[in-house]
Amino acid sequence: MSHPQRITVLGATGSIGLSTLDVIARHPERYQVFALSGFSRLGELEQLCLKHRPQFAVVADADAARVLQGGLQAAGLATRVLWGEAGLCEISAHPDVDAVMAAIVGAAGLQPTLAAVEAGKKVLLANKEALVMSGALFMQAVRKSGAVLLPIDSEHNAIFQCLPGDYARGLPAVGVRRILLTASGGPFRETPLADLEHVSPEQACAHPNWSMGRKISVDSASMMNKGLELIEACWLFDARPAQVEVVIHPQSVIHSLVDYVDGSVLAQMGNPDMRTPIAHALAWPQRIDSGVPPLDLFAVARLDFQRPDEQRFPCLRLARQAAEAGGTAPAMLNAANEVAVAAFLERRIRFPEIAGIIDEVLNLEATVPVGSLESVLQADARARSLAGEWLNRHGR
Ligand code: NAD
Ligand code: MG
Q1: What pLDDT, in 10s, does the model give residues 256-272?
Q2: What are the start and end residues of each CATH 3.40.50.720 domain in the chain?
Q3: Could you confirm whether domain 5-151 is CATH 3.30.70.260?
Q4: Is the pLDDT of residue 2 over 80?
Q5: Which residue has the least CA distance to atom 19 on ligand 1?
Q6: Backbone phi, psi, residue 9, to 5°
Q7: Which of 339, 333, 344, 290 is nearest to 30 (CA)?
Q8: Do 154 and 274 form a contact (C-beta atoms < 8 A)?
Q9: Percentage of the residues of the chain whose pLDDT score is greater than 70
């Protein structure tokens, strides 16, 4: 490509968004920021605009757009400020965009990510919730538009790196027996079970190895993150849930593995820093510097592995069940989880109640096949309303 690649960063003010901008800033000759989006931290988004000088910025609503537009104009910037889902879809599908980093958290990322896919962009997918909700439709849209979908989630990026290029023909066709999805086990891996009733949002967000947004940090503590990733892996790599095994690996140095029929097991390793998968996907199939220091195996010294305990981590079991049920079950699982995690962060429920709410929502609502985006959005709304009812009855 003769010009620098023009990148839209959805969720620029978040953990993945900032890591992406860090990698981009290391390679001004290769990448240029085309558009940035942010939701709540307007001042931070303004600073990012002043630094990266995008053509567009997108915020939550018209009021925020007016404030940011005024600030940027006063600073002499020509950035146009848009707002809402329509604005997000516009910067995702804009004809001048080469690649889109999809790093909005949660279901809010679905429509803008799909807009990038439908426009046939190179899509760097961090927003796993979008794929979990709408897997079949999402992957159909990728095939139809010819979009290049590159996983940013460290595990899926690792698996992508360990698979041959022609795995799209099917995992058995390229000799894959299993995918081994590694998990750190989060901050509560060894907490006595009885104490989980009393853990705080701060404890849940204090991840031992990774620094991440609050929602995914709680998901890591409950291991729902690994459950969502199991579903994500099935869609990305055309795997059955039974072909994906979760392995607890507390050091987070092996980011996942692929087990081949000849007994070879390929792993991707590195320091736990999201700039590695981000740089990998940005430059793919080339390699660029990410700013991540080299892995010091002598400092790591040992690698441990454990089988996950489903009594401790019921969310993992619920996610596997939803993966096997298919249809609208993953969208409902995801929506109930988003409501429950938000309630936990607001101290309205206790940590073990996250799994309790999801279990109840999945039991109350029958799974139906996914025919259209409408049916996904309906399942999402229904699960949110059932979870909300649970909170009204039992929440503080
Ligand atoms: P974060 O909370 O740090 O950032 C989220 C971003 O989304 C922010 O820019 C925020 O302004 C924006 N946002 C939030 N709600 C929004 C809404 N309703 N509409 C529009 N924008 C909204 O989260 P994060 O840790 O950067 O994670 C982002 C995504 O990447 C998540 O889906 C997460 O699962 C995935 N991911 C993150 C990591 C990580 O290391 N942080 C690793 C793998 C995958
Ligand atoms: Mg991950």
Answers
A1: 999 999 999 999 999 99
A2: 5-151
A3: no
A4: no
A5: 108
A6: -115, 105
A7: 290
A8: yes
A9: 99
